[in-house]
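In line with agreed milestones, work has continued on tokenised descriptions of protein folds. One protein thus recorded appears below exactly as we store it:

>
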Amino acid sequence: MAVELSSKSAYIIPLCPLVASCLTGSFSFFFPKATRSLRRLCAASNIFSLVVAMSISFVLVWKQTATHSIQQYLWAWIPKSDFRLKIGLLIDPLTLVMSILVTTVGIPVMIYSDSYMCHDQGYARFYAYLSLFTASMLGLVFSPNMIQIYVFWELVGMCSYLLIGFWFARSSAANACQKAFVTNRIGDFGLLLGLLGIYWITGSFDIYELCDRFFELTSNGTANPIFATTIALLLFLGPVAKSAQFPLHVWLPDAMEGPTPISALIHAATMVAAGIFLIVRIFKLFSTLPAVMSTISWVGGVTTLSGATLALAQKDLKKGLAYSTMSQLGYMVLASGIGASQSALFHLITHAYSKALSSSGSGSVIHSMEKVVGYSPNRSQNIFFMGGLRKYMPITGITFLLGTLSLCGLPPLACFWSKDQIITESWSNSPYLGLIASGTAGLTSFYTFRIYLLTFEGDFRAHQINYKESYTFSPPENVIHSWGGGQLDLLLKQTRNNFTSPEKKREELLEIANFGTVPTSRRGRSYETIHFYSGRNLLYPQESNSCMVLPLIILAIPTLFGGLIEINSVQKGYGLNLLLDWLISILSLPEVHKHFEKLLEILISSIPSLSVSLIGLSISLKVYGHLDNIFDTKADEKLGGGDLKIFLVYARNWSLNRGYIDYFYKIYFVRSVISISKLISHLDQWIIDGFINGAGALNLFGGESIRHAKSGRISQYLFGLVIGTVVLLQLVVDFPIPPLP
């Protein structure tokens, strides 16, 4: 009875952040002044709601390990009709794993957001969106049927639209959220068609029921294989868009226009994780169709390789991490396509903590760099303006390094265990997929360690002179910045940095630090009044405050030890295998040797993939380990010239131009749609509207002419009647009607 009671209380998990979001949003809308004065209380209530949800999730996990049961609690939604639909809760191992993942990542991100967004005018609105985002994801993972999944699927997409475009007055953010929305419409439309098709075949929306019926119908040949394959591919189209798989990945890098806490949450435990969750949830349906499984695996393979190549030469810190997320999501989809859904889920968990740590670390860096180079993302997020930050931000640097090494796949960090499983199973399934998975591991080590080296090692480069490219501060738009309008009167209007000497640069920076403004008249340079936030030293960045550093430390713990938590089966249960074995071996000394042999066996089997990762890391260290200049071209000089240098130039152009995929879409899809829209608009305007407007104009002019012909005098009407009668009689006399035969 206790277990049943605890399981029934699972509805509190998505309800807590939902209530907090509604209350915060309502108070912010109806009582804006009071909400601004009590905004820290709003943040605390939202964080507390997620803590309650996390606590209940852990209680349910503890009960689940004892019972290994699958429970559903359903309520009739449409009871009195031929089409009956129920809503409720599904509690199984997969649900609880995802619930813990969402809550344990969401809590540090919410704590982190308090400091990151503290000066923003939309502080309370941000927390309302953030809680609604987590509530939507939790509702998605607890859904027992596909209709309920689709409802929360759309809510997750809506929240991502609101959060990516949080600073909607900035044109780049507005364009980014629209791009994410439109791209996901393609996948969501395919998912909707797939849901209708699966109901046509199975007659049910219940997840377990439709998977069992679909498996039975396709196994005995009752269902048309072509139709069944089409339906499965349409269902897969939803995760392709939501989890940023090729070719619908183009929205993910632009989604970095949102505040950095949102980037951490989207890339770790919410939006992109929703697609992987759906694939694992209905994996039994996909596994019955070899063509669909092959398609899934190759989409994942192409995505993981293309994401790695696109990240090789990125200058923007957050976009480099975005392409890293795209590549790691490709690993998960690839694993699902070769039948290793357990490994896909395992990598989803380990990657979530590692990427949340890296994304939050990047936000800490950007937060500090803005006070040195200004608030333009072209500067504050440009890794070539950074360097040597580990000396000024030691905690951020160490935690970011842990996240980097985990993404590289080095033991004993979290991503090593899951990535090695996927690479091993890829080789056993297909040598081509194995080659892609192993090669991508080397590329991942190269570009992730490149980001770390250029950001945290070497010398601080923002004060160096003779920049190769003419970086300028973007003109300030009417934007609500992350530090609000009160601290920043006017942002760097039409400014260009080309100082003639380091001494002059240091002198001007000292003036800025002392007076908070740059003089309006300087020889050879165009300045207008520039006001900086002058509360701290502007020459070098400084470590972020405790509200931002504490979440980094919290996320570093699962990044270190999360890989030791291995999932047995998403169908029958799960446990803390390797970690639990080691804890038992501490109490039982004879078991130490057995578990040490097990660990040694895992490490030996991972030598090939680990060697590839170490090679990529070594190349990155050789190329970028001693770069003290801002020039990226110095990197290829270190590797020599000739064909290798030409290859590096092509690789850089490929990466910086996003693989030319956006250009292709713009030329062949966007322009085509615009041309067709203009044609239809002209057709509607000149033909359809022209016909209707012409008929109306004809009636108008006809009525006006008749109106002027009428005087209202009866004598004139009688005279006209007589004249008409006489004319008619004369016509009858002149042209008599012939008699009928």
